[in-house]
Amino acid sequence: MAVVLEMKNVEKHFGGVRAIDDFSVTLDQGKIHGLIGPNGAGKTTIFNNITGIYAPNAGKIIFNGQDITGTPPHRVAQLGIGRTFQNIRLFSNLPVLDNVIIASNLDATYNLPQAFFKTAKYREREKYVREKAMNLLEVVGLSDRAGELANSLPYGHQRKLEIARAMALDPKLLLLDEPAAGMNADESAELVSFVQELRERFAITILMIEHHMDVVTNLCDHVTVLNFGKTIATGTPAEVKSNPEVIKAYLGGAD
Q1: The whole model's pTM is what?
Q2: Are the C-beta atoms of 57 and 24 separated by less than 8 Å?
C-alpha cells in the first residue's frame, strides 16, 4: 500500500515549550487516521507544520515521496493537501457558490489580460470552475443553497461548505480539524456517513483531529494519541480506548 504522508521525528518549539516532541506518523493511501488528545496536546500544531504555516525545528515531512518540510502554504496546497480549520473560515458575506469558486483558484489558469478582455480561454475556464464548484456543492448536499450567503447556513452546513472548499483543491490528502465540533449526536452520525462517502468517492486519504470518540471509533482506521506534544499510544480505536495511559490522560479515570 502506498504511503501518502510520513512525519519523521518532527519537533516544534515555541520558546521553551515543545508543542510537538519527536512526533512520527505514517499515513497509508485511502485510510482515515485520527489524532486525539486533550486540548494543548499539539494536534493543530501538527496540521500547521504539514501545511507550512509553521516550519518544524527538527524532523522531516514527506508527502508522496517529496520532502515538503518548511514548504510555503500555497505550494503545499498546489501539491495536493487541503485542510479545514477548528474555527470555520468562510467568506461569510458571499454566496455559498462563490466560496467554493474562490477556493478553486488553482484551476483559473488564465492571466490578468485574458481576464480583463474576457477572452475565450477566460470564459472557458470560468465555466469549468463554476461547474466544478456546483458539482462539489452537489456532493456535500448544498447545491440548492448555492445562492444563499454562507453566514445564513446552519452550523453543520457551514462545516460541509468548508469541506467543499478544501476539496476544490483536488487534494490527495485532506486534513480535518475537529469537523464534528459543536454538533449533536445526529449531526455527528451524519458527518460520519458524509466523510466515509468522501473517502470512497474521491479515494482520498484523511488525517482528522477529533474529540468526539464516537466519530473517531466509527471513522478511523488508525489513531494516534498525543499528550503534551508526545505520542502516548497508537493503534486501532478499540486499542487506544482500552490503553490505561490514554484513559488517564484523555478519556478520564477508570472509575
Answers
A1: 0.91
A2: no
